[in-house]
């Protein structure tokens, strides 16, 4: 079992606080002073959240923040229960779409989110984004970032092995061999962290399924398509082929997300297949890293390559928030041009609410090009009908890597979970 990661020790919790003046209240409040906000966010968004909290607090010094971070698995398991019990934070990470227990659809169904349609930012949400942020034409979250899933390479390590980012599947497998000859692996893989298990086949499915069937989600919803009868089969086989060709670090089922990132910063791995916000985590660990994110090729025709890209980070307001006025003020800041730009400038992602003043990070230039060209695909779980599909996906990838399931069994399990629409 790998040792404790330096990243895991530093990225799980943070409290930012200022003195709370006696008797101070926000304009328009007539009850007790509303000068406190609790925020819970994903560890992958830590630097982005810190940036907007610090800027908001400079403008509102009388508001005290308590900010906590947790990983995806913990948030999806624990946040819904905390909200039901009335113990949840005021503002918190919400997943767009319907694919997990902490998604917009799941939380709205239980009346755990306050509607945000009256707020100015809701009028600037792109039409293509609303299907995963709204429920019945009501906005329930402020979308913050347009992110992607792809291969993040350390240019320093890539240069050290004499490699270049691959544009085809054959080039990808060849680069795995090149990395091995230099005593490295191409990709660090932390499949001990459940949500990480999905990322490689998401990156592959964008091409193996959606390049030829852009309406695959609609066909699934109509019962005209299945996981087993689609390019998901090819993607899972390719995922396992990458494991067989030693493209990944040793013992991925015993390696966590944080430990995988350590392998990149230490130069043991050339890169990692991750979400774009991970760029900021890597930079925090090593500010000298020169990073680049590209699509993960799945065929030998670069024109077919697609990249998962969609609204990733979004924040909702607790319908029972005891600090509603202060929390709404913070929500409005998140939806402002300043808030959007700060959030994404730090996290190497793109604003979910586009504006002309944002400067794209060079590391995600390909993401920006693909967003504009229309060669990105929404994250697969955002369109799934229930959270069981994603949980089943985590479990099946784990079983595939453990050798306790084969591709046929994994696809059958996904189809069963999809048919049970909750």
How are the secondary structure elements laid out?
Layout: H1 6-10, E1 13-14, E2 36-42, H2 46-59, E3 64-70, H3 72-84, E4 91-93, H4 104-109, H5 130-133, E5 134-135, E6 138-139, E7 142-143, E8 145-154, H6 155-160, H7 169-181, E9 185-188, H8 199-208, H9 216-221, H10 232-244, H11 257-265, E10 269-275, H12 278-285, E11 291-294, E12 307-311, E13 314-317, H13 324-334, H14 337-347, E14 350-351, H15 365-373, E15 376-377, H16 387-402, H17 407-419
Helix pairs in contact: 2-14, 8-10, 16-17
Gap from first CA to last CA: 37 Å
Radius of gyration, taken over Cα atoms and rounded to an integer in Å: 21 Å
> Uncertain runs with pLDDT below 50, 5 residues or more?
1-32
Structural class: alpha/beta
Major sheet attributes: 7 strands, mixed
Which word captures the global form? globular
- Find the count of extended strands (DSSP E, 2+ residues): 15
Q: If you average the pLDDT, what whole number results?
A: 90
DSSP helix fraction: 25-40%
Separate helix tally? 17
> What proportion strand?
5-15%
